[in-house]
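Protein modeling request. Please complete all fields; requests missing the sequence field cannot be processed.
Requester role: graduate student
Desired output: 3D structure, token encoding
Chains: 1
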Amino acid sequence: MPIYQTATFEHPELGKSTGFDYSRTLNPTRQKLESSYALLESGTDGFAFTTGMSAISAIFDLFKAGDEFVICDDLYGGSYRFFQEICKNRNQKFIYVDTSNLENITKNITKNTKAIFVESPTNPMMKVTDIAAVASIAKQNGILSICDNTFLTPFFQRPLELGIDIVVCSATKFIGGHNDTLAGLIAVNGSELGEKIRFIQNTVGSGLAPFDSWLMLRGLKTLAVRMQRQEENAKAISEWLGKNPLVDKVYYPGLISHPGYSISRSQSTGFGAMISFEVKSKEIVEQILKRVKIISFAESLGGVESLITYPIVQTHAAIPKEILDRLGINERLVRLSVGIESSVDLIEDLKQAIG
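Delivered output (355 residues):
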């Protein structure tokens, strides 16, 4: 697909158009990405935004003041910051619950609840929610269901096929796959819902630029082979971490011991490449972050290179300490985004870093 690096398009004559007028509204390169993503997620419409957060912002522009939402309590810190700092100014209310327990969802739905928002697996504690059950609860109550599918992508999990209304992902991560550009993607079930998001995207001007759209299309071409290799590596590393005496806990849905393992197998075709693990002390964390050589100590995830992140001071710094404590996000927890390097090399790197 070419890069249509243009802001405006020439009209052949009065009353006639090529279908493209102005790139904020529609651009051929972005359109190709959007239709491709909709196809992969089995959606009716797809949309590409400047970042994952701008995509989430567009979704919540669908709602009005006074609306309430049930949200998974373990989620990306940037999403929490958006809900608490931006949406609360609109007089919107957010109720945070452990959505892996469906009863927590049903008992917190009120007459003002307009949507359920989940991540599955969650960031960073890797909790798994029964996505089809969430979709069913939402439909029974006449509200929308939204799923953040960043960690698994449509290669491993397709929430729309499970009944979810809106799926969103930070395409910066696994979709792009190379940590070289930012993007967010949305796919929806239903053309009426799609028209509403398209209006918001055009009006606010949050659509992805042509060159970034082209980079995302490039990423889609290798998504399958990257995620297959990354998952293979993640399985090997999670098993090794589980045997390390300096590691207390390993959070990875691909381990049979994980409480969400069975649900993961029923609703996903893979477990992904994200691992969180807890070591014996904060000093070991500091040692790991200083000593890693192949793995990079950096923000973000999903690229071909392995990255290690310290959630409590990086991705989840916006979340209050009492919530972090309740979730188990402590000074001994690190998150690993596994890349496509040799699993043997990655394990050797962790071995020398942990000590």
